[in-house]
Amino acid sequence: MPLMTTTAHVLVVDDDPVVRAVLTACLSRAGYRVDEAEDAAGLKAWLAQGGLDLVVLDVKLPDGDGMALAREVRARGGIGIIMVTERGTPDDRALGLEIGADDYLPKPVYPRELLARVRNVLERRAPLRTGSLLVFGPWRLDPRERRVSDALGRVLDLTPAEFDLLNVLVTRAGRLQSRDQLQDALGAADTDAGPRSIDILISRLRKKLNAPEMIETCRGQGYRFTAAVTRG
Question: Which residues are in the Response regulatory domain (predicted)?
């Protein structure tokens, strides 16, 4: 019995058949539609066919560099990318995120962590794939353009980390989110400052939105976005 119901299509790209089998089994049990590719050629064939929602991509492939391939995937628009590799240094991780990967996991990959990362990436990417605007209060959040503006077109000045956090809160409106959940959703690139970074970003967002009541503090538990959200 799947742990969840979803039609998201995930492609696992790794030249190690054992790794592919483990990741595929994990994702399939969670209810995802999963296919495999063992090399760059296989990935490109799937890209040409279309219909992918997320690629779990090994950096080191026999016929191509994973970083370069990630650029090709990113050029396709709304497909999520999670880099999985034995190289887990901060520089490797930063490079992967800079070229457009959504997240970065070192091997060995733990199933529970993989599923959490996959869910987070798919959730963040869903509005981008559909092109939907997220409307709340006087604001319109455009995930494709990474922009928040009001009805007059005035753009809110947000840092990348502030935008990412707001996007997570808005897409999870009404649901209590712990600091750990928010950190996991943002990924390491936005939370290197430590646990307090979430509190600092929340404080900044409240001031910039000029509506502190939109983000409720749930004492000892985390935060909840309270404004009504519609898709425009």
Answer: 9-122
DSSP tag of 80: E
Alpha-carbon distances, residue 75 vs 139, 144, 193, 231 (angstroms): 28, 13, 30, 25
Q: What phi-psi label fits residue 158: left (phi over 0), alpha (psi between -120 and 50 degrees) or beta? A: beta
The whole-model pTM stands at: 0.60
What percent of the chain has a predicted confidence (pLDDT) above 90? Answer: 40
Residue 14, both tokens: 């790794």
pLDDT digit string, tens, across residues 89-120: 566 556 655 566 788 888 888 888 999 989 88
Query: What is the token pair recorded at 136?
Result: 């709340």
Q: Where are the chain's structural domains?
A: 9-128, 131-231
CATH, domain 131-231, list 1.10.10.10, 3.90.600.10, 1.20.1560.10, 3.40.720.10: 1.10.10.10
How big is the CA angle at 202 (ends 74 and 77), to the nearest 5 degrees? 10
CATH class, domain 9-128, is alpha beta
Can you tell me the distance from the alpha carbon of 61 to that of 52, in angstroms, rounded to the nearest whole number? 20
Report which DSSP code applies to 188.
G
- List, in order, residues 6 or more apart from 222 with CB less than 8 Å away: 176, 177, 178, 179, 181, 182
Q: Whole-angstrom Cα distance, residue 103 to residue 97?
A: 7
- φ/ψ region of 51 (left if φ > 0, alpha if ψ in -120 to 50, else beta) reads left
Sign (positive or negative) of CA dihedral 167, 186, 182, 109? positive
